[in-house]
Amino acid sequence: MKRRGIYLVQPIQSELKIIYNQKDAEKAGDPSTILKVNKDNIKFGQSDDLGKRYNEFVEIFGNVKFLEVIEIVDSKKLSNFKKHLKTIFYQYCLSSLKNGKKMDWMKEINLDNVQNIILEEYKKF
């Protein structure tokens, strides 16, 4: 059974790794323009299949902390809430090395805080 919703992921290792699997990294081109993250970073995201998304992160990073924060069945509501989170976490978001666009990877905030903020924001949403 697929579950759709908002998740958090945090790599376990201190070694910096690129945020893509091998196939996506090749599509992205120049490796020096791909963001690298480690245990100091947290990503918030949305997925139509949280189980599959977890497996993708395991493929990229090996061990990860993966939290399914909120299940949201309505895909439009899910997209809108994810956009809302982007504005809430904007100050923590890392910028793309390629174009400077803010990404869903964050620094200088911890997992518990992020989870609590998401749950509080969802009550108001």
Q: Which term fits the overall shape?
A: globular
Rg measurement, Å: 14 Å
Q: What structural class results from the helix and strand content?
A: alpha+beta
Number of domains: 1
Q: Portion of residues in helices?
A: 25-40%
* Major sheet summary line: 5 strands, antiparallel
What are the low-pLDDT stretches, counting only 5+ consecutive residues below 50? none
Question: Order of strands across the widest beta sheet?
Answer: 5-1-4-7-6
Total strands: the figure is: 7
Q: How many alpha or pi helices?
A: 4
Order of helices and strands: EEHEEHEHEEH
Gap between N and C termini, in Å? 26 Å
Q: Quote the average pLDDT.
A: 96
Percent of residues in beta strands: 25-35%
Explain what the structure shows.
- The protein is of the alpha+beta class.
- It has one domain.
- It is 38% helix and 28% strand.
- The chain has helices at 22-28, 50-61, 75-88, 111-124; strands at residues 5-11, 17-18, 36-37, 41-47, 64-71, 93-95, 102-107.
- A hairpin with a 6-residue loop joins strand 6 and strand 7.
- The longest helix has 14 residues, at 75-88.
- It starts with a strand and ends with a helix.
- The mean pLDDT is 96.
